[in-house]
Amino acid sequence: MKGVRECLKGCSSHTFLIWVVACLLFFPGVGLSLTDRIIAVVNKEVITWSDLDKEIRDEYKRLTAKYHGEELDRRYHQKQREVLNRLIDDRLQIQEAQARGVTVTQDEIDAALQRTPLPPTQTEEEFAHQMLLKKLYDFEVRRNVVVEEEEIKRFYDANPTLFLTSPHYRLKQCLIAGKEGFERERARKKAQTMYAAWTPTTSLEDLATSHFEQVGELGWVRENELLAPLKQVVKELKPGHISAPIETLLGFHLVLVEEIQQPQPLPLEAVERDIRGLLTKQRSEEAYRNWLADIKQKAFIDVRLK
Description:
Elements: H1 2-9, H2 13-26, H3 28-35, E1 38-42, E2 45-48, H4 49-66, H5 69-100, H6 106-115, H7 124-140, H8 149-158, E3 168-177, H9 181-197, H10 204-210, E4 216-222, H11 228-236, E5 246-247, E6 251-261, H12 268-298, E7 301-303
């Protein structure tokens, strides 16, 4: 460094500029030290611009592909703030883990990686970081969350529409088959003709027979067992009515709803586990927010991002 300082003393501003450019081109590490800066201080640790840039680089590419000009600048600065806040939260939690003596051993990391292979976009160091945060969360937050039986019962009684069986539909259909090309277009036109010819006094069997097609019984079907294109249409049909042609990979369906069995309440025993999981999740999220807010209140945080 002494030699560099001596050299710079005799340099003109033009020569100095050339030297800086050369450093940026041929010595990236020097370039980083010249351009990096502190954007936040969390207790005694710093977060630098390069820390933020590493996290936000991919997001910036996505933003530039979608936005331009002032809108791009606005959204980019908003995203910078969001990511910086997350980095501050992470740094606070790591510091808290160190203070509490919470660690993750290499054996724990190896065992976890055997159960869950490392995603291609994540390094082992990042994986271990997430494990440590999860371990701290379990130690500081999750273990203190308790849901009593009475709370589960109260939630069940207060939300009866959340715990119902799926509707049952007794269905029959006429499938006009046509998978591709001319055959599919012919099936489309035929299905449209049949639908236009149907009246409430016409049975689906008579309609199919008059167009040289057949009717198939689908029987009782739960709503969640139906294919996506059929599900929405069937939900809107009244008993005794047929649907407009529904297109699937097989062809075009004319579906008739014969009967509907309305949703029935599920017994508490059948949904108790789900309710416990839901309430535990809600309580844990609230407890985590309060715990993190308390840590932030006690910490020294100086944000310098402009």
